[in-house]
Amino acid sequence: MFPIIRPAIESDFDGILALHARNLYTNLSPTELAGGFVSNPFTSDLLGQLLGQDGVFVAESESKIVGYVLAGDWNFYAQWEIFILMISRLPELKFQGRELSVDRTFQYGPICVDLAMRGSSIFPQLFELMRSSFAPKFPIGVTFINKLNQRSFEAHTRKLDLEIIDEFEFNGNSFYTFAFLTGTGIDSGDRATITGHIK
């Protein structure tokens, strides 16, 4: 049975946070890090803020959250210093001939899929629902990937075909910045069931 890909509701928060904690950088061994990781801790309050922007999406299988993706405007993400640095660099960047600014772009991420479900269509399907949902508000999405996170890099370049627009250093780590158009769909092969917004 294919998972359901849908906008999140508040009752999904415990499942999202449990999946997030299992994949948090500080909770993983060096061997486990090779399978991919998420960088920043999250809380129910932070999820609630993004839910208010319609920026939380989940994959659900047999009543269990097996994937999620978050997205929102720069005002939300500016709570973290790394995003303040990214914001400061936006005016120097272009993507496919378009100038970037906080008004024309939004931040996507993190995205996480349960270990048992990796390699399935969940990752691109979550991304596609997020992208199409934000298309009416922003023409361009932006995200960063730690250069140590090779699995995430390969997924974003191979499955999603995102483009690198910048590289930067922060707290002793090296990062790529990626960008994508919100108005362009992707072919993700076998499709999960995608549902519309739940209010």
Describe the protein.
The structure is a single chain. The protein has helices at residues 13-22, 30-33, 44-51, 74-77, 81-89, 122-134, 150-159, and strands at residues 4-7, 56-61, 64-72, 94-95, 98-99, 105-113, 140-146, 163-170, 173-181, 193-194. It contains seven helices and ten strands. The chain has a single domain, classed as Aminopeptidase (3-Layer(aba) Sandwich), CATH 3.40.630.30. It has an eight-stranded mixed sheet, with helices on both faces. A two-stranded antiparallel ribbon has the order 4-5. It is α+β, with helices and mostly antiparallel strands and 199 residues long. It is globular and about 45 Å long.
Oligomer: single chain
CATH superfamily: Gcn5-related N-acetyltransferase (GNAT)
Helical amount = 25-40%
The figure for the number of domains is 1
CATH class: Alpha Beta
Protein structure class:
alpha+beta
Beta percentage is: 25-35%
**What average pLDDT do the residues reach?**
86
CATH fold label: Aminopeptidase
Question: Biggest β-sheet, characterized?
Answer: 8 strands, mixed
Number of strands: 10
Radius of gyration: 16 Å
Individual helix count: 7
Span between N and C termini? 25 Å
Widest sheet: strand ordering: 8-9-7-6-3-2-1-10
Second-tier CATH architecture: 3-Layer(aba) Sandwich
